[in-house]
UniProtKB/TrEMBL annotation:
Keywords: Cell membrane, G-protein coupled receptor, Membrane, Receptor, Transducer, Transmembrane, Transmembrane helix. One of its GO terms (molecular function) is G protein-coupled receptor activity. It is found in: Cell membrane. Gene3D superfamilies: Rhodopsin 7-helix transmembrane proteins. Belongs to the G-protein coupled receptor 1 family. GO terms for cellular component: plasma membrane. It holds the Pfam family 7tm_1. This is G-protein coupled receptors family 1 profile domain-containing protein. Its main location: membrane. The chain crosses the membrane at residues 33-56, 68-92, 104-130, 142-167, 187-209, 250-267, 287-308. InterPro entries: GPCR_Rhodpsn, GPCR_Rhodpsn_7TM, TAAR. The keyword Ubl conjugation does not apply. It comes from Coilia grayii (Gray's grenadier anchovy).
């Protein structure tokens, strides 16, 4: 949830279109800012579309963990399509160029996608912890259907929660159409801080600390198994543990980057009084950092997931258009990372 709690009192000053442009040193600077913003938006959308196409098309990638990654990629792609362009205009221009209805829709989409992203990451942490702590139970109990149910519930619960939050704070009737900023009272702000920041972040951090210790214990078991090569079952178990540790490490990077992008924003929110006059500038900077997480995620996949690298090659060479291309082996092992 992206919250900018503003106490809107008095009359809103409506800016004239001719005064909406900030004063830049040159028109080239102004155009360059928009060009840079457009490049970031295009990269974000295209990068996440590659992830969506890869996971959806190749049947080998239809795993419970990848369903959560698919949901995260969809929310990141929508951030690139609907949130980042508007946020870029708000940063570049000196006033909002949008009407009250558009701002209400923008805030709803913004809140919805933030909630979904946070809880997708949370369930990825739960998934990895369960897979490492109870691998045999995980393989029997966790299915594609269960992951789909979890993802659908996250999107639905997010929709109802954010509709209630915005409605009961009067954001569907804009108090200040010139300021595309939602108003949230103190009670709802506290609730939202707990629901969308404190609880999921605490869950993520605690579970990944446990994953770290489990991974260390597995490393000891693997080294012990390697001393007795004749015991094939022990060796296979060690190989399985190694794959799970690798998956947990890569997803740990994904989660760590997400937390580094999210936590600074909420720290600024809690230090609103201390920041005083520089509050808007600092919060907008931290908000930009959070949105850029949607741009960074596909880069993480490209750097650390061999299956994503191979999928991109198949997509760019149009081999994905061939008959039965969904059955192509995109994994380096028989087990998904």
């Amino acid at each position: 949830m992206i919250l900018n709690e503003v106490n809107i009192t008095g009359d809103c000053l409506v800016s004239i279109n001719s005064t909406c442009l900030k004063i830049y040193s040159s028109m080239a600077t102004y155009v360059s800012l928009y060009a840079f913003a457009a490049a970031i938006v295009i990269f974000t959308v295209c990068g996440n579309l590659l992830v969506i196409i890869s996971v959806y098309h190749f049947k080998q990638l239809h795993t419970p963990t990848n369903v959560l990654i698919l949901s995260l990629a969809i929310s990141d792609c929508l951030v690139g399509l609907f949130v980042m362009p508007v946020h870029s205009m708000i940063l570049i221009e000196s006033c909002s160029l949008f009407g009250s209805n558009f701002c209400a829709l923008y805030n709803m989409i913004n809140f919805q996608l933030t909630f979904v992203s946070v809880y997708n990451i949370s369930f990825i942490a739960v998934d990895r912890y369960f897979a490492l702590s109870n691998p045999f139970v995980y393989s029997k109990k966790v299915s594609l259907f269960i992951s789909f149910i979890i993802v659908i519930h996250v999107w639905i619960v997010s929709l109802f929660y954010n509709c209630a939050l915005l409605y009961f704070n009067g954001n569907f009737k804009s108090k200040c159409p010139d300021k595309c900023v939602p108003y949230v009272n103190e009670v709802w702000s506290t609730v939202d801080l707990m629901v969308v920041f404190m609880f999921p972040c605490a869950t993520i951090i605690i579970l990944y600390l446990k994953v770290f210790f489990i991974a260390r214990r597995h490393a000891v078991l693997i080294r012990a198994a390697q001393k007795d090569r004749k015991r094939l079952d022990v060796q296979n178990s060690g190989d399985s543990m190694r794959l799970e540790r690798k998956a947990a490490r890569v997803l740990g990077i994904l989660v760590s980057v997400f937390l580094m992008c999210l936590i600074p924003y909420y720290i600024c929110m809690m230090l609103m009084d201390a920041l005083a006059q520089s509050y808007d500038r600092v919060v907008n900077t931290m908000l930009t950092l959070f949105f850029l997480n949607s741009t960074v995620n596909p880069i993480i996949y490209a750097l650390f997931y061999p299956w994503f690298q191979k999928s991109m090659k198949l997509i760019f060479t149009f081999k994905i258009c061939r008959t039965d291309s969904s059955l192509i082996n995109v994994l380096s092992t028989n087990r998904p990372p």
